From TrEMBL:
It is found in: Cytoplasm. Keywords: Aromatic hydrocarbons catabolism, ATP-binding, Cytoplasm, DNA-binding, Nucleotide-binding, Repressor, Transcription, Transcription regulation. It comes from Aliiglaciecola litoralis. Signal peptide: none annotated. Pfam families: AAA_lid_14 (PF25601), HTH_50 (PF18024), PAS (PF00989), Sigma54_activat (PF00158). This is HTH-type transcriptional regulatory protein TyrR.
C-alpha cells in the first residue's frame, strides 16, 4: 500500500490503526482523476476488503469532539501539565480574563487561580482528586482538581497533568435549586402500571397543555388531587400557585368568603381580604368535590368561567382574574343536573376536559407497585429499611377490593409498618375490613322493586365502563354479553358519546 502511495507521489502525513484493524491514512487532497486510479489499486491488495474516504482521522475526530465539549461547558476549565503550566482553556476562561487563549497558555496556574498549592499537589507521591475553595479574579469558586493519568509503555499509569474545573457560588446555587425541584415528569408520582391508569395519564398530559377547565371524576381515595397537581405542574401555569378549596367540608358562607374574599368593612373588618381565586391568579384553582357546591357559589363560578370576573363579598367592584379551574367529584354530575341540584350551564362549561380515574379494584397491576412505593416512603420517615412483601401478602393485597382505594392502601401499610418487627411483611400484618365481595352495592333502605334497583346499578356500571370501552363490541366482550344485548341496554339508558364524556 505504501509503494502505491510512493508511485503516485502522495505525501503521507500519518497512519492510524484502530482496534478493529481498520487502517486510516492521512494525506493531502488529490485530484479526482488520480483518486479514481488509486482506489482500485489499493482494493486489489490481498487482505483489504474495502476503501472509503473519511473527513477526519480518529485522533482528529476525538480531539475535535473533546475540544467542542470543553468549549461548550459554561464553567471555567483549565488543563495544566505536570509543572502547573496552562495547556488549554475554554471560552469561559478567556471571556472571564478578557484575553485570547494564546496569552493565557503557558502561564503558571497558581498565578491565575489562588488558594491552592498546585505544584505541591502535582509533586506529591499519591495524587488524588480534590475539591477546594479557590479564588479566581477576586471571586470565590469551588474547584474540582482532577489528575490526568495516561499509561506508559509497560501499561503503568503516569501523571500527565491535571484538569481544573471552577464553579461559582451562583452556579452552585442554580444546580442545588434544580436538584431540589420536582421531576420534570410531572406525572411521575402517579402510579400507572395498569392500562387503565396509563390511559388516564396520557390523556391528562395532553389536557395539561391546554387551558380549559378540567373535571376529574372518581371514587374517594383514588388520587384525584395528585392528578390535579400533576396537571398544574405540567402546564404553562406551573410557576403560578396551586390553591385548593374543598366544596364539601365548609359551610356555604365560609366557602364563599374563602373563594371570593370580602371587601373592607365586611364582617367588621377594616381591611378587605383576597380569596383564593384571586390569590391563584396566573395559576390553578382546585375545587374538590365541586358537585357539593351550593347554588349561589355555582352562579358566581359560572360568571368567572364566562367573563373571567367576580366580586368580593360585600363589594360592588369587579375583579378580573386569569386562573385555570380544575375540579374533582365522586358524584355523577349528569345525574345532579337531572335532579336540578347542579346548574346545567355550569355543567357544560366544566364538562370540556374530563378525566375518569378508575378505582383501585379495577387496576390490580398498580397495587403492588403502589404498596412498595408507600413502604419505601414511610420507611424513610421512620428511619428503617423498607420490608419485603411475602407472597401471601402480595396475593392478599391484590385480591382485596379496596373500597377506600389508594388512600386506604397507604393507611393500611403505614399501620402495619409501624407495628412490624423484622424485614418481611406478611398477610397477617395487614389489618383490613372484610373484603368488598361482602359489601352491598344497594342501600339497606331503597324505594322500588328489585328490578328497579338492578336497573339503577346496571345503568351506573355501564356509565362507568363506557369511557374505557367506548364501542358496543368492546363493552360486550368485557361483560360477556352479546353485541346486540349491550347495544339495546346502552340505548335504553341513553348512554352514548354525547351523554358520556370519553
Amino acid at each position: 500500500m505504501l509503494d502505491i502511495l510512493v508511485n503516485y507521489e502522495i505525501d503521507l502525513r500519518g497512519i492510524e490503526i484502530d482496534i478493529a484493524g481498520k487502517i486510516f491514512l492521512n494525506f493531502p487532497n488529490i485530484e479526482f482523476q488520480d483518486f479514481q486510479h488509486l482506489m482500485p489499486e489499493i482494493r486489489r491488495i490481498e487482505g483489504i476488503d474495502d476503501v472509503k474516504t473519511t473527513p477526519f482521522m480518529p485522533i482528529e475526530r476525538e480531539k475535535n469532539q473533546l475540544r467542542a465539549l470543553l468549549q461548550t461547558l459554561p464553567d471555567p476549565i483549565f488543563s495544566v501539565d505536570t509543572k502547573g503550566r496552562v495547556l488549554l482553556v475554554n471560552e469561559a476562561v478567556t471571556a472571564s480574563l478578557e484575553e485570547p487563549s494564546d496569552a493565557i497558555l503557558g502561564q503558571e496556574i497558581g498565578d491565575l487561580v489562588r488558594g491552592f498549592n498546585f505544584n505541591k499537589w502535582l509533586d506529591g507521591k499519591t495524587i488524588s482528586a480534590q475539591s477546594q475553595k479557590v479564588n479566581f479574579l477576586e471571586q470565590d469558586f469551588i474547584a474540582d482538581i482532577l489528575p490526568v493519568m495516561i499509561p506508559d509503555a509497560e501499561g503503568e499509569s503516569i501523571l500527565a497533568g491535571a484538569l481544573l474545573m471552577l464553579k461559582s457560588e451562583f452556579r452552585l446555587g442554580q444546580q442545588l435549586t434544580v436538584f431540589h425541584q420536582v421531576s420534570n415528569d410531572s406525572f411521575a408520582a402517579v402510579q400507572a402500571n395498569s392500562n387503565a391508569m396509563k390511559k388516564v395519564v396520557r390523556e391528562a398530559s395532553r389536557m395539561a397543555e391546554l387551558d380549559g377547565p378540567i373535571v376529574i371524576m372518581g371514587e374517594t381515595g383514588t388520587g384525584k388531587e395528585m392528578l390535579a397537581r400533576a396537571c398544574h405542574e405540567a402546564s404553562r401555569r406551573a410557576s403560578g400557585q396551586f390553591l385548593a378549596l374543598n366544596c364539601a367540608s365548609l359551610p356555604d358562607s365560609v366557602a364563599e368568603t374563602e373563594l371570593f374574599g370580602y371587601a373592607p368593612g365586611e364582617f367588621g373588618q377594616s381591611e378587605g381580604k383576597a380569596g383564593i381565586l384571586e390569590q391563584a391568579k396566573g395559576g390553578t384553582l382546585f375545587l374538590d368535590e365541586v358537585g357539593d357546591m351550593s347554588a349561589q357559589l355555582q352562579s358566581k363560578l359560572l360568571r368567572v368561567l364566562q367573563n373571567g370576573t367576580f366580586r368580593r363579598v360585600g363589594d360592588s367592584n369587579e375583579v378580573s382574574v386569569d386562573v385555570r379551574i380544575v375540579c374533582t367529584t365522586q358524584k355523577d354530575l349528569t345525574k345532579l343536573v337531572e335532579e336540578g341540584s347542579f346548574r346545567e350551564d355550569l355543567y357544560y362549561r366544566l364538562n370540556v376536559l374530563v378525566l375518569i380515574v378508575p378505582p383501585l379494584r379495577e387496576r390490580k397491576s398498580d397495587v403492588i407497585p403502589l404498596a412498595e412505593r408507600f413502604l419505601k416512603q414511610q420507611s424513610m420517615k421512620l428511619g428503617r429499611r423498607a420490608p419485603k412483601l411475602s407472597k401471601s401478602c402480595v396475593d392478599y393485597l391484590q385480591s382485596y377490593s379496596w373500597p377506600g382505594n389508594v388512600r386506604q392502601l397507604e393507611n393500611a401499610l403505614y399501620r402495619a409498618l409501624s407495628l412490624l418487627e423484622g424485614n418481611e411483611m406478611g398477610k397477617e400484618h395487614i389489618q383490613l375490613p372484610s373484603s368488598a365481595e361482602n359489601v352491598s352495592f344497594v342501600a339497606e333502605e331503597f324505594e322500588g322493586t328489585l328490578e328497579d334497583e338492578v336497573k339503577r346499578y346496571e345503568k351506573s356500571l355501564l356509565r362507568r365502563l363506557y369511557p374505557f370501552y367506548p364501542s358496543t363490541r368492546q363493552l360486550a366482550k368485557k361483560l360477556g354479553l352479546s353485541h346486540t344485548a349491550i347495544a339495546n341496554k346502552l340505548r335504553e339508558y341513553g348512554i352514548n358519546k354525547k351523554t358520556v364524556k370519553i
